[in-house]
Hints:
Blueprint: H1 2-37, H2 43-67, H3 82-117, H4 129-152
Helix pairs in contact: 1-2, 2-4, 3-4
Amino acid sequence: MIDTILDRVTRAIELALALAFVLAVLLNFTNVVGRYVFGLSFLASDEVQVFIMVVMTFLGAAVVTRRNMHLRMDVLVKFMPRNVQIALRVAEQLLFIALAAFVVTQSFDYAQRMFRIGRVSDMAGVPMWIPHSAVAVGFGLMLLIAAFGFVALFRPAPPQPDGGEVKP
């Protein structure tokens, strides 16, 4: 059930990020046309595009984590005994959980400070807690995914219809 929920959340994030990317491209196109055709520049659009890219980066990292598609240097690990591979996978998940938890606490604290002081961006007037919250949300999702992945390491693999086992 948790797998289904995480898959649905991941899919929703992917769709939202695709729309955000389209918005960023449209902002850029509008700014180029305005600048070179009408001599007008929308200064806030560059700033908003940067914020969109920040959100896309951290929420996209959660999607990559869920899909287990992040970069991994595992050439040598594949040649090690199964017990060593499992131990390294457990260590990797524990380290990921610890680092993600640290980033979540720090970024949440920083976003909260931005909210308290009412800081807004210079050109667009975007409340700065919003782009800074993307770091906390992205790493929070990665923390949940990593914690679930850690627990999944200790569950027995479900049998396949042909009698074989599924590899994690």
